[in-house]
Amino acid sequence: MLTYIMRLICVVSVFVMTPVVLVWAGLEKPIQLSDIPQAILKAAQEKFPDAIYKSSNTEFEEEGTFVYEIQGTLKDGRQFEYDVYPTGDIQEIEVEFPDYMVPGAVLKAIQRQMPGFRPTYIEASHSASMKVVGYEFVGLYSGETIDINVSADGNTIEISDK
Question: Is the pLDDT of residue 11 over 60?
Answer without folding.
Answer: no
